[in-house]
Amino acid sequence: MKKETIKIKSKHYREALNELSNFLEKNLIGNKIITNGNIATLLQDMQDYELWSFPKKEELIDEDGKFKNFPIGKYKSKELWVNPLMRWDDNRILFCDGENDDIITEITFIDENDVLI
Length: 117
What we know:
Structural class: alpha/beta
Distance between the termini: 25 Å
Low-confidence stretches: none
Strand content: 35-45%
Helix content: 10-25%
Strand order of the largest sheet: 1-7-6-2-5-4-3
Radius of gyration: 14 Å
Number of strands: 7
Shape: globular
Order of helices and strands: EHEHEEEEE
Number of helices: 2
């Protein structure tokens, strides 16, 4: 698994969003993005985001009664999923592949000026 860090240095929201978008576009691999609700909401503000309908309550819980990852849309050509068990301050973006969500790349997101998150 490859690990990277992105530091967003812009002081304005739209510029910071473009900075993140440019980084993701250069590094976008796999068929799925998994992240926390905070960053998923941020990605929804980007151009090339396709919104899907929110899953039903029973689709959010597995057979053991635990919350499971759920899809919320598409960013570029990749499915965007939220892991409801990731903390709001766990600012990782996981690029995954395959049915088992094999992690290809883990990106840690740092917003130096607290513009985005």
